[in-house]
Structure formats: structure tokens, C-alpha cells
From TrEMBL:
Region of interest called Disordered, as start-end residue ranges on this chain: 304-325
Ranges where the CN hydrolase domain occurs: 6-272
Annotated CDD domains: nitrilases_CHs
Organism for this UniProt entry: Amaricoccus solimangrovi
PANTHER family: CN HYDROLASE DOMAIN-CONTAINING PROTEIN, NITRILASE
Stated name of the protein: Nit6803 family nitriliase
Annotated family: Belongs to the carbon-nitrogen hydrolase superfamily. Nitrilase family.
Length: 325
């Protein structure tokens, strides 16, 4: 049975740029703080554990090797002690948690979103389908299997990361599965003020177009952290601002003042009746759709480098015996 009201929290905090363990401690502390405030749905920033690869935005590729290798060492495997700790926090506090991680799978890293249900079950592990610009030096690509809406204790939840929201077909794949709460996250502390403005436009538009709630979290870097990433003051300008942690209703309205600087949380109550109120006017995958004219073909098969195929054995046919006519 759907909850009539869901309290959501979008978390804007700084990672520990030195260690996975330090960032994990901040995650678990934030879960406890949000849950103490009644939050049942908690969203963290993009690839928050161990940290977003800010270095890739300001360092030329030839200088990225040491930091990229360090990211490999600090990245998260699924499952792992880190995922089990988050699952236990979700179960203990009865909250659905959406966490962005750098996932290591063999010799590759991925920008991965994890959705833990309120009973601790990992409902979804999805990978960003196309890393953006500088990120292509860092992460591999996801596939259509991750474009999935999952049933949780708070309703039907979908998730996309950062500029995946500029892929209208990726968004429509979730809309067509009738997501009720959309979890989104960006790195934050990147590009400058224009990035935060663009995020706000994108989040409000998706809420309106899909008729769902959007809970978006962006990260934050302190001045000391910015200085540790690059010594050049000119390049440090690209590691500031760009934050827009917000919660938006299906009518495209902020449900609480957004957070654009510093650490903190945006907390708001989601009145689920607003979904029907919005879709009565415009249901983009229902009465406002024209599937006989325009429709999405979504390949949900996982992209795997090796697939086993064992053809069925051919039954032996009895030999024909020639006879005289």
C-alpha cells in the first residue's frame, strides 16, 4: 500500500578526499541525522563514495594516472563491507537510501547508483549509461538493464545521474515505467554558478514532464579541499559553486528552499496525491501520449562481454536402407 506522505531528505555534504572509510563514516552519520528528522527516503550526491573524480576536470590526461589509480584502490565493490553497512543502516532506520558510488568491477570503474530498500535489500544497481566529457577517461558505460523503476517501501523509485537527464529517451524510459519518486544527483562544486542554474531547470522540468517528485543531491567541497585538488587558482574556479540540492513536486515547485552552498540537508514531505493531480492534466505516458506515432524501444538486456551458447544436440536420424523397387 502506497504511503500517503513520504518525508524525503537530499543530502549535500563533502566527501573525505583521502579515504573511502572517511566518506563512509559521513554517509552513515548523515543517514542517522536524516532518519532522526523523520526521513524515509534519503539521497546522496553522485559517486559520493569514495569521492567524485574532480581531478579529471582540471588535470590533463597525462597527469591523471596516480589519482586515477588511487580511485581504483578506494572504489567500492558490490557487494562489499560498504554496501552491507549501508544496507544495515537502511534496515535499522527503516529508510530507502540512494547512494552514488565509484564501483570497481574487475579492471573497470563505473558511475553507479545503488537503491537500498527500507528492509536493507539492494533493489537496484545501475551504471551511468554514458559518462560525460572528462568522465570518459575514468568510467566505463552502463546499459539499458539499469534503466529500471523499482518498487520500494516509499513507492516506485527511478534514478539517473547528472547529465543523463539531458538524454530525453533515458528519462522517458523511467517515465514509461511510472516512477513516483525520481532520485537524482550531481557532483556539485563544479563548473560554476551556471551549473546550479542548469540543474534547477532540469530537475523542475523532469518533475513536470513525468508527474513525479524529484529528490536531487549535489556534493560540496570546502576551500581546503579545492586547494588540495589543484594548485592553480585559475583552475580552482572550476571547482566551486554548481550546487543545487533540492526537492521538487510534480507541479515543478520547490517543496523547501534549495541548498546552493555549504553542507546540510533539504527535507520535505511528499504528498503523493499530487502525482494524480498533475497527471490528471498531463500524463506523458498515458492520455497525453501518442504511442501509435511516437514510442520508445528500450533494450533491457545487460551488456556482457561473453555469452555462453550451447546448441541443443541434433538427434541422430536412422539411416535409410535402400531397397530394390
Amino acid at each position: 500500500m502506497q504511503k500517503p506522505v513520504v518525508r524525503a531528505a537530499a543530502v549535500q555534504i563533502a566527501p573525505d578526499l583521502a579515504s573511502r572509510a572517511g566518506t563512509m563514516e559521513r554517509v552513515l552519520n548523515a543517514v542517522a541525522e536524516a532518519a532522526d528528522k523523520g526521513a524515509e527516503f534519503i539521497v546522496f550526491p553522485e559517486t559520493f563514495v569514495p569521492f567524485y573524480p574532480y581531478f579529471s576536470f582540471v588535470l590533463p590526461p597525462v597527469q591523471q594516472g596516480p589519482e586515477h589509480l588511487r580511485l581504483y584502490q578506494e572504489a567500492v565493490s558490490v557487494p562489499s563491507a560498504e554496501t552491507r553497512a549501508v544496507a544495515e543502516a537502511a534496515r535499522r532506520r527503516g529508510a530507502v537510501i540512494v547512494l552514488g558510488v565509484n564501483e570497481r568491477d574487475g579492471g573497470s570503474l563505473y558511475n553507479t547508483q545503488l537503491i537500498f530498500d527500507a528492509d536493507g535489500t539492494l533493489r537496484l544497481r545501475r551504471r551511468k549509461i554514458t559518462p560525460t566529457y572528462h568522465e570518459r577517461m575514468i568510467w566505463g558505460q552502463g546499459d539499458g538493464a539499469g534503466l529500471k523503476v523499482v518498487e520500494t517501501a516509499v513507492g516506485r523509485v527511478g534514478a539517473l545521474a547528472c547529465w543523463e537527464h539531458y538524454n530525453p529517451l533515458a528519462r522517458y524510459a523511467l517515465m514509461a515505467q511510472r516512477e513516483e519518486i525520481h532520485a537524482s544527483h550531481f557532483p556539485g562544486s563544479l563548473v560554476g554558478p551556471i551549473f546550479g542554474e542548469q540543474i534547477e531547470v532540469t530537475m523542475r522540468h523532469h518533475a513536470l514532464e513525468s508527474g513525479c517528485f524529484v529528490v536531487n543531491a549535489t556534493g560540496w567541497l570546502s576551500e581546503e579541499q579545492v586547494a588540495s585538488i589543484h594548485p592553480d587558482p585559475a583552475l580552482r574556479k572550476g571547482l566551486r559553486d554548481g550546487c543545487m540540492t533540492c526537492i521538487v513536486s510534480p507541479e515543478g515547485r520547490h517543496l523547501a528552499p534549495p541548498l546552493t552552498e555549504g553542507e546540510g540537508m533539504v527535507i520535505a514531505d511528499l504528498d503523493m496525491k499530487l502525482i494524480t493531480k498533475r497527471k490528471r492534466m498531463m500524463d506523458s505516458v498515458g492520455h497525453y501520449a501518442r504511442p501509435e506515432l511516437l514510442r520508445l524501444v528500450h533494450d533491457t538486456r545487460p551488456a556482457v562481454p561473453r555469452e555462453e551458447y550451447a546448441p541443443a544436440p541434433v538427434e541422430a536420424q536412422p539411416e535409410e536402407i535402400e531397397t530394390d523397387a
